[in-house]
């Protein structure tokens, strides 16, 4: 149920102006107290200067009290679009609108309708352009750290094998603090559950790649990421853990249930999926759509769902999965219904983890359709929650070198070639070009200079090229094909992250704190403040 | 066929080009008893192990590139394949690399194996689709696209050294093809393709029923497996840097 507020020029809103808050705070203001005139602390009309002064002071105190309540959230949901830069949001907004037959440019994704937003500076402690580990750590632990670090501080060595050293340099996460306070917690991702962004919530390790024990160096005493989920020491453990990465939880002696030719990756013989069921009451482990659909949130207190050996399918390919996989919105729905049983509240992170992967591959279609799936999940979350008690944040960990270029007409297909009134524009070589492209990546065409893999010697050889120019002629190419790889300027095996700011969208109690240009680690502090975690 | 995985596949195919009947000894029109003829178009090919040699000469794509001097010189590569109904493994012993293709239900899982590094890169089915490189299992099993065979002129089945073979030939998109298929094992014994000055020949040296193979593929069970989707997050990994440089610049237009 949505409880969206309409801005009102109430006395409260006016009074808030005293505190230098924007009128948008009034949008968040709610409850009966917000409707009371702030200066009606007493029914008696002041009759002296001193009384007038006192009444004025009281008005301020009342409003300050109200404002503090506005900051209090019972629940916090953090949505992360991995790699969802501003250009990705814009292109997705257009694509979603065009797919629905609407004006794409005027369309808005669900979270773009939130009333508060800010820029997030994504540089990590040691990187101008960051990877997902330190950026996600910033969001859930409140600090900036180095590349590859999972909720450990920047003083740790990237390949620190010691459990004791790692513990000393670990930084408590908001999920852990929530568990300490008796809240319920959950993490949902379309990436592997042991991948950087979900992992930062529950694990502490210097190297994001140590997802299973078989990934650890010889002699390491630090626990691998998957194991840390099962040996989580705070509260009563996570209530919801949904994503991919099943093989990291299964022993290498056990065949995968969906792909029997494949085995788990654990060398220690532990089946963490079984351990999940045995160590929690009212717990379930599911790995396919039918099992997931059968989970009754009212009777399930701890749900583990691992729907692929590695990452879950792209949203565009999900329909092809033989065993079936839930959508991000479906997982969000199930998670909230389990978590909201706790009257104390909950913390939930939901990650659209594969936007990033599609961009790395230079494939805009899958990046944008996964972003639509994120928007659908946010919409579902807002429907299931009350904006009086639930803060929802939507942001990205970093951007990608993804651009929207040229001067296409309004309504031109966003995945198509740049055209004005249907007439394709040409570059200085006289060739058509697409609106979407990348600054680097596998989409480099390179014309006659392009190389390709030479299996004869594992090197490269000149690639086939029919044209005579430095770019291919796209005149007869269907660039709206889901498998089309957009062109890139600089040849790289994988397209890279980008260093510009990303956006934070916020709605609910505490959302008013999201404004201006914030360092990314401020996101943690917004959430902590909203949940009343002062320290 | 210009993208990465397709190139890998092509190599399989191309490697198969030019199979000769060396392994079969002196040509003979004598028909062997108990030899089944398999239709490649509907084949459920028998499990086997085989060894091939691929020889390339000339440049496949002649460009006026500043790096032209780096292009591969004529060379010969020997390689092996192990094939059954669910798994195909190739290996180039001299280069210490190989490929693994597995069929699991309707899903094809592909790994590129780097034996010296004890690491592998895994391509999920969606990755292969995105790279426009998702081959059919039949194509992988035959080492040739059945569609290609259908487009070439097919001769009659002849018996050479006691084995049934059929020769396919013709020109497609400027490339002259000659394929000789061993019809008893649904495997090319010769694949030749010529395009301008470029010539490639792949020749079968020997084949065995899988259970009687004198070679075994290098075990990759303990290798660290990296998802293709994760390469972008391993930008500082020396192995990933090396592999990506080898992959070249692939694009499809």
UniProtKB/TrEMBL annotation, chain A:
<dbReference type="InterPro" id="IPR001952">
    <property type="entry name" value="Alkaline_phosphatase"/>
</dbReference>
<dbReference type="Pfam" id="PF00245">
    <property type="entry name" value="Alk_phosphatase"/>
</dbReference>
<feature type="signal peptide">
    <location>
        <begin position="1"/>
        <end position="29"/>
    </location>
</feature>
<keyword id="KW-0732">Signal</keyword>
<keyword id="KW-0597">Phosphoprotein</keyword>
<dbReference type="InterPro" id="IPR017850">
    <property type="entry name" value="Alkaline_phosphatase_core_sf"/>
</dbReference>
<comment type="similarity">
    <text>Belongs to the alkaline phosphatase family.</text>
</comment>
<protein>
    <submittedName>
        <fullName>Alkaline phosphatase</fullName>
    </submittedName>
</protein>
TrEMBL record, chain B:
<feature type="signal peptide">
    <location>
        <begin position="1"/>
        <end position="29"/>
    </location>
</feature>
<feature type="region of interest" description="Disordered">
    <location>
        <begin position="56"/>
        <end position="75"/>
    </location>
</feature>
<keyword id="KW-0732">Signal</keyword>
<protein>
    <recommendedName>
        <fullName>Outer-membrane lipoprotein LolB</fullName>
    </recommendedName>
</protein>
<feature type="compositionally biased region" description="Basic and acidic residues">
    <location>
        <begin position="57"/>
        <end position="70"/>
    </location>
</feature>
């Amino acid at each position: 149920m949505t409880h969206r507020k309409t801005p009102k020029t109430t006395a409260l809103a006016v009074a808030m102006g005293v505190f230098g808050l924007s009128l948008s705070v009034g949008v968040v203001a709610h409850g009966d107290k917000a409707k009371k005139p702030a200066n009606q602390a007493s029914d008696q009309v002041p009759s002296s200067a001193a009384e007038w002064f006192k009444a004025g002071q009281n008005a301020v105190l009342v409003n300050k009290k109200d404002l503090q309540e506005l900051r209090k959230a019972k629940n916090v949901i953090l949505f992360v679009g991995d790699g969802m830069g501003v250009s990705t949001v814009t292109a997705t907004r257009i694509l979603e609108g065009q797919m629905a037959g609407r004006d794409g440019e005027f369309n808005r994704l669900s979270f773009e309708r939130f009333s508060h937003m800010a820029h997030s500076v994504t540089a990590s402690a040691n990187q101008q352009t960051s990877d997902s580990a330190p950026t996600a750590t910033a969001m859930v632990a409140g600090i900036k750290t180095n590349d590859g670090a999972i909720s450990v501080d920047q003083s740790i060595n990237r390949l620190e094998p010691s459990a004791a050293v790692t513990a000393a340099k670990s930084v408590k996460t908001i999920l852990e603090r929530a568990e300490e306070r008796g809240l319920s917690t959950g993490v949902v991702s379309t990436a592997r559950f042991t991948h950087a962004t979900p992992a930062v919530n529950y694990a502490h390790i210097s190297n994001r790649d140590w997802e299973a024990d078989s990934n650890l160096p010889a002699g390491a005493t630090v626990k691998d990421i998957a194991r840390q989920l099962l040996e989580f020491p705070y509260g009563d453990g996570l209530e919801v853990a949904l994503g991919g990465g099943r093989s990291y939880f299964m022993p290498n002696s056990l065949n995968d249930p969906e792909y029997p030719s494949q085995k788990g990756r654990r060398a220690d013989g532990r089946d963490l999926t079984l351990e999940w069921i045995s160590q929690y009451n009212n717990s379930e482990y599911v790995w396919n759509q039918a099992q997931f659909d059968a989970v009754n949130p009212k009777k399930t207190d701890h749900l583990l769902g691992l729907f692929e050996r590695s990452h879950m399918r792209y949203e565009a390919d999900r329909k092809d999965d033989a065993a079936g996989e839930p959508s991000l919105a479906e997982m969000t729905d199930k998670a909230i219904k389990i978590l909201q049983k706790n009257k104390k509240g909950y913390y939930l992170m939901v990650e659209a983890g594969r936007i990033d992967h599609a961009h790395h591959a230079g494939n805009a279609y899958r990046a944008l359709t996964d972003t639509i799936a994120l928007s659908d999940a946010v919409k579902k979350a807002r429907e299931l929650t009350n904006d009086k008690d639930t803060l929802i944040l939507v942001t990205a960990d970093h951007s990608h070198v993804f651009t929207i270029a040229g001067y296409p007409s309004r309504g031109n297909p966003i995945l198509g070639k740049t055209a004005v009134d249907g007439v394709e524009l040409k570059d200085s070589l006289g060739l058509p070009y697409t609106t979407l492209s990348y600054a680097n990546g596998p989409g480099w065409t390179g014309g006659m200079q392009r190389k390709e893999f030479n299996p004869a010697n594992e090197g490269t050889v000149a690639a086939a090229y029919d044209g005579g120019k430095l770019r291919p002629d796209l005149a007869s190419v269907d660039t709206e094909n889901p498998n089309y790889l957009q062109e890139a300027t600089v040849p790289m095996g994988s397209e890279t992250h980008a260093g510009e700011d990303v956006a934070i969208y916020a709605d609910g109690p505490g959302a008013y704190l999201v404004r201006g240009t914030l360092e990314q680690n401020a996101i943690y502090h917004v959430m902590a403040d909203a949940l009343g975690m002062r320290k | 066929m210009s993208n990465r995985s397709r190139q890998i596949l092509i190599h399989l195919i191309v490697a198969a080009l030019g199979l000769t009947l060396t392994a079969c000894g002196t040509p003979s029109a004598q028909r062997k008893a108990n030899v089944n003829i398999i239709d490649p178009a509907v084949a459920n090919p028998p499990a086997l192990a085989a060894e091939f040699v691929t020889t390339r000469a000339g440049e496949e794509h002649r460009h006026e590139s500043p790096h032209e001097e780096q292009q591969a010189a004529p060379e010969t590569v020997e390689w092996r394949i192990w094939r059954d109904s669910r798994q195909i493994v190739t290996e180039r012993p001299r280069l210490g690399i190989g490929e693994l293709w597995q069929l699991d239900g309707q899903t094809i899982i592909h790994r590129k194996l780097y034996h010296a590094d004890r690491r592998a890169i895994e391509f999920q089915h969606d990755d292969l689709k995105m790279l426009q490189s998702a081959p059919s299992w039949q194509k992988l099993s035959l080492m040739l696209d059945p569609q290609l065979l259908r487009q070439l002129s097919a001769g009659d089945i002849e018996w050479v050294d006691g084995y049934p073979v059929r020769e396919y030939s013709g020109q497609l998109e400027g490339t002259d093809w000659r394929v000789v298929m061993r019809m008893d094992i649904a495997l090319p014994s010769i694949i030749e393709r010529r395009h301008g000055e470029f010539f490639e020949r792949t020749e079968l040296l020997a084949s065995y029923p899988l259970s009687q193979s004198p070679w075994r593929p290098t075990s990759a069970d303990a290798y660290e497996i990296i998802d293709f989707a994760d390469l972008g997050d391993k930008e500082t990994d020396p192995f990933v840097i090396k592999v990506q440089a080898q992959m070249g610049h692939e694009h499809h237009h």
